[in-house]
Specification:
Blueprint lengths: L2 H34 L2 H16 L4 E7 L1 E2 L2 E2 L1 H10 L10 E4 L8 E4 L4 E6 L2 E12 L16 E11 L3 H22 L4 E5 L6 E5 L13 H15 L2 H7 L4 E7 L6 H12 L2 E4 L8 H9 L5 E5 L2 H4 L21 H9 L9 E7 L7 H4 L6 E4 L5 H12 L7 H10 L4 H8 L5 H22 L1
Parallel strand pairs: 9-12, 11-14, 11-15, 12-13, 13-14
Antiparallel strand pairs: 1-8, 2-3, 4-5, 6-7, 7-8, 9-10
Helix pairs in contact: 3-4, 12-14, 13-15
């Protein structure tokens, strides 16, 4: 072997030894960093390395933080939902969550995991970055109880610099649009109510079984309402074209026990909309009312039940703020400004429902056209509604006693709730229906004695 060959071989051995040493040192350093170095220091060093190498790269990184001030960043929330559909077999760590009444598992990417997406042939890389902040004066809007170490989360989206306009003008709007569809598909319905101490919305899972199929409502009224709801959610372009806020108002009126609350739940289940149940008596002034109304989400139902007796709503011409803190000063004009005033445009695809047992007691300002678009009379039980109840509770479509029962229902005023209560008294169909006949007969005699 020549001296030249021996020299090349020695050089190669030296190079391989150096590479092996560097690799071993890197593995050791990585192990030390992961096992002994605090997360904060680890994140700081990693962030520094990424920034250093970015100066020599053709890549650009868009940082998408979870919050903008105290408000949720829509792009962050969209990315969280969208990337859950892009998790591949190469992903090492994922987060899995499921609430008790949730039908689907929620899967999201874990911190420092890279998710690669392809859009119009362009490769885009996402990484969830988390860093901890221990400063006492730092408030994380997600950490409402201040019991956890505050965590700041952001997504880093990396791509070639020449595709910046495409990412900002096409890709991110696409992500937001896709995320909205994903979240709506797997959404768990919630019902919100006002916390009396913080005067803010709190929520629980809405698990009401009412649907339009099971609702004991006049078939023609039910048909018209379903058609109106379906038309409403499909007319975003129409509302924009005519210059109206994308909202719809319904007034449900009728005696107690006629199914007003069940109808609201059926609407929520039909549209997959959350419910915000607003108790006006828990508010002190219009400012609190406006703050609550502004914090309701799109694709939701705002419900004010028993509006005729929930608070003294005066005509807007006599509305005056009372400076006495012990006096409730939520005014009719404050409510109507959200229903059809300037504040009504602050939000899209919203439904407003007022309920009352006595429509004649309502201020005429509430009944003006354009405020409550549909007035739905929740009447006493009808023969058609009775058949729906019999199908729901007894799983029958006909019976020898139906004709007699329907005749009584035509003659007297009985609510669907009263009929439903009778249908639950036994597992025997014959016994239940006979008991209903006796109940209706007694009710008729009572009515006749009062006449």
């Amino acid at each position: 072997m020549s001296s030249s060959s021996e020299s090349h071989l020695a050089t190669a051995k030296t190079a391989l030894t150096a590479v092996a040493s560097v690799a071993a040192a890197a593995i050791l350093a990585r192990s030390v960093v992961q096992d002994y170095m605090p997360n904060e220091v680890h994140e700081y060093i990693s962030h520094g390395f990424r920034r250093f190498f970015s100066y020599f790269s053709y890549q650009m990184t868009a940082v998408i933080e979870e919050f903008g001030g105290f408000e949720h960043n829509q792009v962050f929330e969209a990315a969280e939902a969208y990337l859950s559909t892009k998790i591949s077999n190469s992903t090492r760590r994922i987060k899995v969550n499921k609430l008790e009444k949730q039908s689907n598992y929620s899967v999201t990417v874990e911190r420092d995991e890279e998710v690669v997406d392809i859009f119009d042939g362009v490769k885009l890389s996402w990484i969830l970055v988390c860093r901890h902040v221990d400063k006492k004066d730092f408030r994380n809007p997600r950490d409402l109880n201040s019991t956890l170490k505050s965590e700041v989360r952001s997504y880093e989206l990396s791509f070639r610099k020449k595709f910046k306009n495409m990412v900002l003008e096409s890709y991110l709007p696409f992500v937001v649009e896709q995320a909205a569809s994903i979240k709506q598909k797997f959404k768990t319905l919630k019902i919100f109510t006002v916390d009396s101490y913080s005067v803010e919305w709190t929520s629980v899972t809405l698990d009401h079984p009412s649907t339009f199929r099971t609702l004991a409502l006049d078939p023609e009224v039910k048909k018209n309402l379903v058609e109106d709801l379906d038309r409403f959610v499909q007319r975003k372009g129409f509302y924009g074209r005519v210059g109206k806020a994308w909202k719809r108002g319904y007034l449900l009126y009728g005696p107690p026990g006629t199914g007003k609350s069940s109808l609201i739940a059926a609407i929520a289940n039909h549209l997959n909309f959350d419910i915000y149940d607003l108790d006006l008596t828990s508010l002190n002034n219009n400012a609190e009312l406006r703050r609550l109304l502004m914090s309701t989400a799109n694709r939701s139902i705002l419900v004010v039940e028993d509006i005729d007796c929930s608070i003294e709503l005066k005509d807007r011409s006599t509305d005056q703020e009372n400076n006495d803190p012990l006096h409730k000063t939520v005014t009719l004009s404050g409510l109507l400004n959200f229903v059809d005033g300037l504040w009504s445009s602050c939000g899209n695809e919203r439904i407003i429902v007022f309920t009352t047992n006595y429509r004649e007691k309502l201020d005429p300002a509430l009944l003006r056209p354009g405020r409550m678009d549909m007035h739905i009379h929740m009447s006493y039980c009808t023969p058609a509604a009775f058949k729906v109840l019999a199908s729901n509770y007894l799983e029958i479509q006909d019976h020898i006693l139906f004709e007699q029962i329907e005749e009584f229902i035509r003659e007297i005023e009985v609510t669907p709730a009263e009929v439903a209560e009778q249908l639950m008294r036994s597992d025997s169909v014959d016994k239940v229906l006979q008991g209903l006949v006796e109940f209706l007969k007694a009710k008729k005699q009572i009515n006749n004695s009062k006449a």
